[in-house]
UniProtKB/TrEMBL annotation:
GO terms for cellular component: mitochondrion. Residues 115-455 form the Aminoacyl-tRNA synthetase class Ia domain. GO terms for biological process: isoleucyl-tRNA aminoacylation; mitochondrial translation. SUPFAM superfamilies: Anticodon-binding domain of a subclass of class I aminoacyl-tRNA synthetases (SSF47323), Nucleotidylyl transferase (SSF52374), ValRS/IleRS/LeuRS editing domain (SSF50677). It comes from the Eukaryota. GO terms for molecular function: aminoacyl-tRNA deacylase activity; ATP binding; isoleucine-tRNA ligase activity; tRNA binding. CDD domains: Anticodon_Ia_Ile_BEm. This is isoleucine--tRNA ligase. Its EC number is 6.1.1.5.
Amino acid sequence: MPLENVEKIFKYSYDKKGNQLFKFSNNKNKLFFKFTQESNQKLYAPIWTTTPWSLPCNKAIAFNPSMKYGLISSNDSQVYIIQADLINHVIDKVPFFQNSRVIDAQFDGRLFSGSFYASPFTDSSSTLLPLLPSDHVGSKQGTGLVHIAPSLGQDDFKLALKHNLATNCVIDEVGRYTSDDVVLNTFGLNGKLALDTDTFERIKEILGESIVGQHDHIHSYPYDWRTKKPCIIRSSMQWFIDTSSLKEKALDSLKDVKIRPNNVSNSMTTTLSSRPYWCISRQRSWGLPIPCLYDIDDKDKKYPIIDKNLIKKVKDLIVQEGNIDFWWSKKHDGKLFESIQTNLCKSADIFDIWFDSGSSFNSVLGEQKTADLYCEGIDQFSGWFQASILLSVALNKTTPYKSLLVHGFVVDEQNRKMSKSVGNVVEPLQAVKGSANKLPQAGLDALRFWIAHEHHKPQIQIGAQIMEKFIKRTFEIRSVLRFLVGNLHDFKSTDLIAYDSMWPIDKCILAKLGSISDQVYQNYEDMNLSKSINLVENFLLSQISSFYIKSTKDRLYCAKNDSLERRSAQTAIYCLLIKLLVMIGPVMPHLAEEAFHYSVLSCNDKESSLFRSDFGFKCDQVWQNDQIQELFDLIEFLRSLFHEQIQSDNPAMYEIFLDCDPSSFKRLENIKKKIGSYNWLTECFGSSDVNVNLEKNASNEKADSSINLKVKKVNKFACSRCRRFICDQNGEICARCQQVLNI
């Protein structure tokens, strides 16, 4: 900060060559140290670090311009700058400061702008380094002043680029300090391993009395997963794509892409907008090599040699050899280097795997280069999805996909991520075939049912109890389909009857099916698999199983085989089965195909398939019968009143009396004339009988209802065949059953 500002506000002098205080640690150890040049200088900028080996590479100190800073006067009469909220923390942690005096004054961090400091790790005592503003400086630990080594940290590197600091790395690929740095040579650090204990001791020796404190500090640090040893993050020569020239075009193209589910659609735009650059090279012992050459004397690999003829030779050799392995040997070097120049070596860099996968559209999508759908996890907004659109816009000026389907991540029942060390990783085959002490045998359809139901959630739980629920639900769906298939055993497509001749409840169930078919289809189109399968499941269990099957069992089991009333129910079941199999097919293909082959739909053709049939989602327009739906809305209301009155008794033991106004009476009478009886009402209620009467002053149990319901327990006996309570003597067979049996 400018000298006059400090003197004016705090009355403490600040020499731009003044002493500095640093703190650093090795793994669990913290060390505070100060840089000093002249004994009469009194203002220090203390920092701390968990990477002491990076201090010889220090090029700046970062401060946060939006934070407040304060001052501590130590026992040796020196003054130290500390972030205001961290002063007490520093005093508690560092014995050197425990008897220090806190000066009652604070100032804004922005006043550091334009200031410089002297570091012991410079080649000259006159060399000054800058204090730079940065938002990455926090107030949770340390001193609020951060040591910056541009080549050894991501935040450091970004700050260096912003302020034009040198970013060359003085630690090589082996982890040794290089010999081409003046500072390292001055202090005898060149050639030493940065993470070696001897190196740490040498750095402490150089700092000497500048170290003012040390304490344990447990923190996160990158370790190599194979060797279990600490890693060094270092800058290196890499290949980059300038995304700034592509982002606007990519964002504009993204407007035409449908992203599902809708609640994550903004994530792609946000992630793409904030991407600073793309490093497309990696240093691995496997992968797709970057086809370029270097002069052997170009040790830093600053001047790559790229030649069209070289790339053509590489392509020809890939075709000839069947792979790229020749690049890693000298087998074809003569041919590759031919007519370029001598003293060459091949690049050891490979392409980033996101460059590989991101350019897959160029190889697998033919001339159009655009897929209908890309499907992956939500993390691919910054991975495959983003890499693909950037490369496609660069090459083809368009997106490589028309839509994106994004899913969450699978976790266990305790919401823990899958981890081999924890032992909770679930392989798909384990869920299909079952796994001892882990998962029950679910089968493929139950697993697909679980995926379709849960895929849109950020965290998708899986475990024994969860899969048991989906196995049970799959079995319930299968049971309903089995009933439908079984009751078509004597039915052929030639037995279908006209819609006008069908019983009201059969028309009703087709109308209800028609009301969900468009929703199911549209949700499949929108990739809302959970909504589609939930609609179908609810319809199967609540409408078909709980209502329709219970109501029509008597007709299906006890009516004459070829009677109109039974064929009406079978016609409805035939239509239901076709549409339901088409609806569950995308999620439960094996169950749908099994039901298809066991039903009359396959026509006993073993080569036929539901998925090669011409069955569609769309229902017959005539099924959309508003009058029938309105009638059954009223009947369902009356059914609920009926069951409220009889409680848990057997409804077949009761007789129902409906007192209707003239309009309702006429409507029900017209249906009776067409069918021949009120048996259709009897099966709707599951009662012994239903009597419909005309009553001018019928009271309304429901505001818009014009029918009054009364119930009476019948004094009859159950038919020995159909079990309806309509016989006068015990053990008798009712008149309907006698007619069916020709008795």
